[in-house]
């Protein structure tokens, strides 16, 4: 112990010399490391908070403890001076920035294990930009493959029915819809487990599980077994849809999160739109079973890359592991993580697991915010898969297109997605920075939502445009273009709402996204099953108009959350 304190005093002495050197050069040198060092020095003058002041329910980037300098600080500075890291920061950093988040630091004298410094290279927010974007790219790739698998069977329903001698169109559509039921169930336990055991093991293991069941889908001997295997695929593939968002939150601060969310969500948007195009042509040429092999091969390669090249990003899990390691090395079992509230009751491992597994459901049904935005997106997501299942019926029936040519119609949705993603990427972070500065530097998660309100008015247009043009069988280009506003609207509302939930419930981002996913995927699993009968009874025109009127009725939800969400959140006293 005495040697540890001596090293701390020596480090503090070296620290003063470093600061003096920086002060001599600050008129001629401007770099992120210098600015951060000055910021650290100001923090030292203010002093740290005592352990009793910790609030475990607060966001982890607002907790401060007394600073202890170690050798890792110098390694951190060298990391920040690397050419690649400096280039990445210059090319990816927005012109206007918010103050950097403050990390809880090490204080061994008081038994607290935290980060070595504000520039600790082990902190995911301090990873080199190249590593951050590489991990995000891997996430985007696997997040492309799982929804790709969800919709690739949509244009092959006719072939599946023929293979299994099924005459009921609803039963033939079941393998497509039941995949989304797996999407709904998986996050209920995968997301909280990622908050307990870490993101890396969950994202890797669950996607490996997804790949294994794709083999079963390719070899399924009956329609019922195909439906079961598809459910298991959805169960494993769901992790990338929820845990992926939590990883993005681990890696990027608020002012950069919008652009990172865009890259991650590229897969979610592009996958379901391109899959039917490929699936239609594959089914026509080499058989519908091959669509599963075409999904399995690249998905397996990506999962292997994630397992080998990615790493853990959960802040609390990293410090928990560090606490356990230092407790053994220093023979100090009393050491605790800086993220643990010393005044909170000590929970058993069973209680921690139970709390984690029930958290998404508690969030969904006890938080008006989570339920409201989940209901809004659930309807739009259900309509998306309703379109996936009924586009073949409309274009093969009214326009007499082949299955392969019908798949091209889905590309109009992709055009809308790309427009929505481009606008979100360009506006989101800039809007947050501008509104935060206007709010005296105080950031509120609701600042993610203004853009969402405009897109909510675009979303219903498709139902009237596409529905009535297809109903009257006007030239095919009219209903095809009519699908574009749907793509723009769903991305323009989904992305800000998802970013909002990550920011509003940062401590439990994975569970918040799981709650968000459950209702969305349940609706998406069952609404498409009602589509064929609805269009037979009402017709394509009035059937789509009914959906359009519901979409219009739901427009006030994002507006209400934007205006009153802050007050509601402050009244939520639940212990998630």
From TrEMBL:
Keyword tags: Glycoprotein, Membrane, Transmembrane, Transmembrane helix
Entry annotated with the keyword Transmembrane helix: yes
Gene3D superfamilies xrefs: MFS general substrate transporter like domains
Biased composition (Basic and acidic residues): 14-27, 36-49
Region (Disordered): 1-58
Keyword presence, Glycoprotein: yes
Alphabetized Pfam families for the sequence: MFS_1
Compartment annotation: Membrane
SUPFAM superfamilies: MFS general substrate transporter
Compositionally biased intervals (Low complexity): 1-13
Superkingdom in the source lineage: Eukaryota
Main location: membrane
Protein's membrane topology: Multi-pass membrane protein
Bilayer-spanning residue ranges: 133-154, 174-194, 201-221, 227-251, 263-284, 290-310, 363-388, 408-428, 449-468, 474-494, 506-529, 535-562
Cellular compartments per GO CC: membrane
First and last residue of the signal peptide: none
Molecular-function GO terms, alphabetical: transmembrane transporter activity
Record-annotated Major facilitator superfamily (MFS) profile domain positions: 135-571
PANTHER family tied to this protein: MAJOR FACILITATOR SUPERFAMILY, MAJOR FACILITATOR SUPERFAMILY (MFS) PROFILE DOMAIN-CONTAINING PROTEIN-RELATED
Protein name: Major facilitator superfamily (MFS) profile domain-containing protein
